[in-house]
């Protein structure tokens, strides 16, 4: 079953069960996909859905510190719940060690030797690790590996 179909079924189920947070979270994915279809005049692929979901996770994760600063515990819990819901639709996340192995292998394959090659390495890795690892972590590991 495609991710689009799974989202639709889960959306209907959340509506039936009156799970407002889950319904709204899934709707935000579907809305982002629809907007992408309209803007780019394309059919959204599985890969596009993964990118959309990863982007939504990133936005919510980056908002957490702001809510913590303002002491909005109610919103923090809701945001964490949204992140958990979104994560169920992403591929299995790789561990730091697995990401480091992929980064090292890619650097060796590309023959990258200095920080000047970072863009080339990140270009390859962003496609390979999309939705499977945090881009910030990947960037940090590439910098660490290239500076050795």
UniProtKB/TrEMBL annotation:
GO terms for molecular function: carbon-nitrogen ligase activity, with glutamine as amido-N-donor; transferase activity. The keyword tRNA processing does not apply. Keywords: Transferase. This is Aspartyl-tRNA amidotransferase. It comes from Petrocella atlantisensis.
């Amino acid at each position: 079953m495609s991710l689009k179909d799974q989202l639709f079924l889960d959306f209907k189920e959340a509506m039936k069960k009156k799970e407002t947070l889950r319904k709204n979270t899934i709707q935000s994915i579907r809305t982002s996909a629809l907007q992408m279809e309209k803007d780019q005049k394309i059919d959204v692929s599985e890969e596009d859905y993964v990118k959309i979901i990863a982007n939504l996770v990133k936005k919510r994760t980056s908002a957490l510190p702001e809510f913590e600063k303002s002491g909005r515990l109610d919103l923090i819990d809701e945001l964490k719940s949204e992140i958990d819901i979104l994560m169920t639709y992403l591929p299995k996340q790789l561990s730091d060690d697995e990401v480091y192995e992929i980064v090292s292998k890619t650097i060796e394959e590309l023959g990258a030797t200095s920080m000047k090659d970072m863009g080339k390495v990140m270009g390859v890795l962003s496609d390979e690790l999309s939705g499977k690892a945090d881009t910030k972590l990947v960037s940090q590991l590439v910098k660490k590996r290239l500076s050795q």
